[in-house]
Design a protein that fits this description.
- Strand 9 and strand 10 form a beta hairpin.
- This protein has 411 residues and is of the alpha/beta class.
- It is globular and about 60 Å long.
- The longest helix has 24 residues.
- The chain is built from 14 helices and 13 strands.
- Strands 3-6-2-1-11-12-13 form a seven-stranded parallel beta sheet. A six-stranded antiparallel beta sheet has the order 4-5-8-7-10-9.
């Protein structure tokens, strides 16, 4: 039996309300206008921080450049940090602040749209169907979102992300009083560097998931040495989203000296542990131009890319959904995987997919192109056929999002 795996890009979550790169760019630029950025910097200066004008104006120029999406903008900040200059740290700090902005935009897409996410999971039900046919279904995702986690919870599927340890963190209100516990899974840095992710289910139905570029619910702790992943606080999609909300709203260190009464550090969640000692959880989203670059530092361990490469070997048929083939480090792994055996097959699924990517032309006989939206492709694997009404509703939702993109000028 052919072992099928899924590789998910941004297009795989588009119809569940998650943004594509230009969608997110439009949101950022609509809020972070040049005037807003300068105003924020003035406020930061009154607090004893702030950035030099040259750094702010450099970011302003990027924001005004219509050819640059948010990953390009972040990449430009990274380049400035790499160059010898007394402004390097200012560029690095602004990079971290902008990544945190991306995190929060994605975070609110989840916690404010629970009903919509649940409604659209029906259109992604094919993932559940594939998970029940494969032992297991390997999913490799570039997405930071929690749509796969929501699918697993909604359809009561086993989900293994390679985190084995169990723990709980104290939740508190803004006065610092304890409210309860947040369950988390853990993974030691020594473990991932020595032997990789700790997958304990390699031959059972369900989903084994690797988030290659970090995720909303994955953080580094202990000064970046170890990782934790949020665990659901209850059943179903609500349990997944409640955990995410609790981490961002009630995992805190009460301190009246800070705005909102809780301590704040850039791109981290600052919280009080059981003993009341300040601890830090650093967000793992990888964004910009230097993901897994050997000469760059990043929050997420470089070993995650090696884990993708290693566990991809367990798959003989890989379905890439919504991936634009824009990441060189990913393309190289896909190419080598195909080159190793003529029995391996790659399917590229995305609207407008008509030509084999140039880096795969020499193995084009092993590549199948599917000019389809993610939900149309996955419908063939759904647990039950969609009704006429469901297909019409799906088409209506999709049409509304596509028209919105066309109105904004980047469809």
């Amino acid at each position: 039996m052919t072992a099928t795996g899924l590789f998910l890009g941004a297009g795989a979550s588009f119809e569940s309300g998650m943004p594509l790169v230009w969608d997110l760019t439009a949101e950022i630029k609509a809020w972070l206008t040049p005037e807003k950025l300068r105003e924020l910097n003035t406020g930061w200066r009154t607090q004893g921080t702030g950035n030099p004008d040259a750094v702010i104006e450099s970011l302003v120029a990027s924001l005004l450049n219509q050819s640059m999406h948010y990953e390009n903008i972040l990449g430009n900040l990274e380049v400035q940090f790499k160059r010898p200059s007394n402004l390097r740290q200012a560029y690095n700090g602004l990079y971290g602040w902008l990544v945190e902005l991306v995190y929060h935009l994605l975070y609110f897409r989840h916690v404010q749209n629970e009903t919509f996410i649940i409604r659209t999971l029906r259109y992604l039900e094919g993932i559940a169907g594939l998970a029940r046919e494969n032992t297991p279904l390997w999913i490799f995702s570039l997405n930071h979102d929690l749509i796969v986690e929501c699918i697993a919870a909604h359809y009561d599927l086993r989900l293994d992300c390679g985190f084995s340890g169990a723990n709980a963190l104290p939740l508190r209100d803004k006065r610092g009083l304890r409210l309860g516990e947040l369950p988390v899974q853990s993974l030691g840095g020594d473990r991932i560097n020595a032997s990789g992710l700790d997958f304990t289910n390699l031959s059972e139905p369900g989903i084994n998931l690797i988030k290659i570029h970090g995720a909303l619910d994955v953080f580094t702790v202990n000064e970046g040495r170890d990782l934790i992943k949020l665990a659901p606080t209850g059943s179903g999609v609500r349990g997944v989203l409640q955990s995410l909300r609790a981490a961002n709203e009630n995992l805190l260190y009460a301190d009246p000296r800070f705005l909102g009464g809780k301590a704040k550090t850039i791109n981290e969640i600052t919280y009080a542990d059981e003993a009341g000692v300040m601890q830090f959880m650093r967000r793992t989203l990888l964004a910009g131009a230097f993901k897994f670059d050997q000469y760059s530092t990043q929050v997420l361990p470089h070993a995650f890319l090696k884990q993708f490469q290693d566990y991809l070997l367990r798959v003989s048929r890989l379905v890439c959904i919504g991936y634009g083939c824009g990441d060189a480090h990913i393309n190289q792994i896909l190419r080598h995987w195909l080159e190793f055996s003529g029995d391996r097959q790659l399917e590229l699924v995305a609207p407008g997919t008509k030509i084999c990517p140039s880096f795969l032309c020499h193995v084009a006989s092993q590549v199948t192109l599917a000019d389809e939206f993610a939900t149309d492709y996955l419908e063939r694997y759904a647990l039950s056929p969609l009704s006429t009404w469901e297909r019409a509703a799906k088409a209506g939702l999709r049409g509304a999002r596509v028209r919105q993109r066309q109105t904004r000028g980047y469809a």
